[in-house]
Specification:
Blueprint (H helix, E strand, L loop, with lengths): L1 H11 L17 H12 L1 H31 L8 H16 L6 H4 L4 H6 L5 H22 L1 H10 L4 H25 L5 H32 L6 H29 L12 H21 L5 H14 L17
Helix pairs in contact: 2-7, 3-4, 3-8, 4-7, 4-9, 7-9, 7-11, 9-10, 9-11, 10-11, 10-12, 11-12, 11-13, 12-13
């Protein structure tokens, strides 16, 4: 009888919903967990997310209304693919620019960077966690666009392969621009941050053109299955360029997160900005010398170079006593 009473009492107790929640794995890092929890509730994510959904609903409604006109005339012009433009602007521009102030809480008057760096965190973990959150939130918005893309696909007039290539390129562009925005957020002047992001965008466009023009030309000349291999190489080249500019942005932000200023070890911000400016020239020269096939060498060499800038002390702190953590 007592056992039945205990069981009834246990069944009547309220269930804690937090017990069924799976915590984030430790491998993601504390910065990622903190920024993700804050980012999902922040206005810099909620407002763009709701705005993109509203514009997507309006765009897909307009496309459904224009579908009959397109069937009669054969072409609806730019208005025949409004949802694609909403996704390009939302994922490729709006979401990365929400990270334009990502490092300000650590570098403003409170200087939280000292507290973070005096713990077990280092500068790479801080900027990497912020980039992972920014990119993950963009992917979340892109996933929410899948129903609209499927609706547009069933309406007709959309090529599935072209759409997939567009989404892959859009993710690469988002990753690069998110990294550049986080790097620029280390500077206090808002206008200077946007100017630095614009420099990075034009530099990335020039680098991508230099790295991929040979493969894109081969795709244009090929037909059918012969265009698959050049397309794969073009995607890989674009992804490598995106990795380079993500590294540029994270290194730029990392250079601003310093515990102290040592005259023998000045910040590497100027050197990284110079690399961003001159990267298209280096890649174009490497591409021209090798008839379009050596862009990977130029991009890979610059990637190795930027990773060597402003190195941390690592495990051997005796020989790098002045290095920043």
């Amino acid at each position: 009888m007592q056992t039945m009473s205990s069981a009834a009492t246990a069944d009547s107790l309220p269930v804690d919903p937090m017990k069924s929640c799976t915590p984030l794995p430790d491998s993601l890092g504390p910065v990622f967990a903190k920024e993700l929890r804050q980012g999902l509730r922040a206005q810099r994510f909620v407002t763009p997310f709701v705005a993109i959904q509203i514009f997507a609903i309006v765009a897909i409604g307009a496309e459904l209304g224009l579908s009959s006109f397109q069937n009669r005339s054969g072409d609806a012009g730019i208005f025949g693919n409004l949802i694609t433009w909403v996704i390009i602007i939302g994922i490729g521009i709006v979401m990365p620019l929400t990270n334009i102030a990502a490092l300000r809480p650590e570098l403003n008057d409170g200087r939280n960077v000292e507290l973070l760096l005096m713990s077990n965190l280092n500068r790479w973990q801080i900027v990497r966690g912020k980039w992972l959150v920014g990119f993950s939130l963009s992917v979340l918005v892109l996933i929410s666009m899948i129903p609209y893309l499927l609706t547009r696909y069933f309406v007709g007039g959309v090529d599935l392969v072209d759409t997939m290539l567009l989404l892959i390129g859009l993710l690469c562009a988002n990753a690069a621009l998110t990294g550049l925005a986080i790097g620029a957020s280390g500077f206090g002047n808002l206008l200077g941050r946007f100017l630095l992001v614009m420099i990075g965008i034009f530099s990335a466009m020039g680098t991508f053109s230099g790295a991929c023009w040979r493969f894109l030309a081969m795709m244009g000349d090929a037909t059918g299955s012969d265009a698959i291999l050049p397309g794969v190489f073009a995607i890989l080249s674009g992804a490598l360029v995106a990795v380079l500019y993500v590294t540029y942005g994270l290194q730029l932000g990392r250079a601003r997160l310093r515990l102290f200023e040592n005259p023998l070890d000045p910040p590497a911000s100027g050197l990284i900005i110079a690399l961003i400016i001159f990267t298209p020239i280096v890649v174009l020269v490497a591409t021209g010398i090798t008839a379009g096939y050596g862009a990977w060498v130029g991009v890979g060499g610059l990637l190795a170079l930027v990773l060597l800038i402003d190195r941390g002390p690592g495990k051997n702190a005796v020989t790098a006593r002045y290095s920043q953590p």
